[in-house]
Write a structure and sequence with these properties.
Order of helices and strands: HHEEH
Radius of gyration: 13 Å
Number of strands: 2
Largest sheet: 2 strands, antiparallel
Number of helices: 3
Shape: globular
Oligomer: single chain
Structural class: alpha+beta
């Protein structure tokens, strides 16, 4: 089994993280969407921020179907 580093962010630290990666304004203006269902991401439904190559991030909303589906997609 491959081991990977997992990082977690406390809710109170999220605004600082979003500023650091340059996505604070995008979240506030409704420009971020769930990779699974297409729902608009906001501060109350943001569950996963997954960094990808070239400074691109994937976002997943907090619905159980999206979270479960995101991880099962990655295992396939």
């Amino acid at each position: 089994m491959k081991k990977e580093k997992l990082s977690a962010v406390f809710e109170e630290d999220l605004p600082g993280l979003l500023r650091k990666i340059g996505l604070s304004n995008a979240l506030e203006s409704g420009e971020l969407f769930c990779i699974k269902c297409g729902a608009q991401i906001n501060s109350s439904n943001l569950q996963i921020i997954m960094p990808r190559q070239n400074g691109v991030y994937e976002f997943v909303c907090s619905t159980p179907e999206c979270v479960e589906g995101y991880f099962s997609k990655k295992e396939a």
